[in-house]
Amino acid sequence: xxxxxxxxxxxxxxxxxxxxxxxxxxxxxxxxxxxxxxxxxxxxxxxxxxxxxxxxxxxxxxxxxxxxxxxxxxxxxxxxxxxxxxxxxxxxxxxxxxxxxxxxxxxxxxxxxxxxxxxxxxxxxxxxxxxxxxxxxxxxxxxxxxxxxxxxxxxxxxxxxxxxxxxxxxxxxxxxxxxxxxxxxxxxxxxxxxxxxxxxxxxxxxxxxxxxxxxxxxxxxxxxxxxxxxxxxxxxxxxxxxxxxxxxxxxxxxxxxxxxxxxxxxxxxxxxxxxxxxxxxxxxxxxxxxxxxxxxxxx
Length: 299
What we know:
Largest sheet: 5 strands, parallel
Order of helices and strands: HHHHHHHHHEHEEHEEH
Distance between the termini: 51 Å
CATH topology of the largest domain: Rossmann fold
Mean pLDDT: 88
Strand order of the largest sheet: 2-1-3-4-5
Number of strands: 5
């Protein structure tokens, strides 16, 4: 019941946000984007996070027909309790599978995604996670490579990791082969390669060149046996089974996110400082869209 009322509120906020004042718009956007935190936090905490006054949330509650902030927050709090009730388990999936053929297929797909993530993270033991983070952090240069559909995974990992580790490089950077950018690699460098079936010939070539040049190799894949004469110093196995024609990357993304957590954590204050500088630079040059509040004219 709480989830239904909560969704109704969210739908009303989304539908009416363009007609709100700038301050109310910020409060509404915060609720839509942070429904779980909104369900837990008192008014002053929510106001601080949203960047508005506590009275703004009171006015928003009144606009939506609630008696006050607590009445507005209550459906979000109840929804959280329902969602994390241990006795509920995956009953929502069971319920979903009984709502027609498409819903049943949708539930099947969701179960598969959950299973893939669980299995992939189970395979990422603490020893392997620490070894991967250490190899990347201590490398002279660390190269991350993937091609075709898995390139998106490598791009994301590099985008975040380079803010903490300046010596991490994405290859290929443009429409070429990864080996084109491995001319000067040497012992002391690390290659992290990501590939899934059907395995990329370019990625396999990069793995062979890395081994020939004495680099350490981290392989993220569903199998160690991706091609003859491919040996990795560290193999990170992930599950990619799907119900359609292509590999499912949910497990791989979960593993990469876990590694990013350890990289940033092990980087300590120096890593946090670099990340802060990146964010400040982007904000200074307008990389992120921000709603502008109207300037008040003073008489």
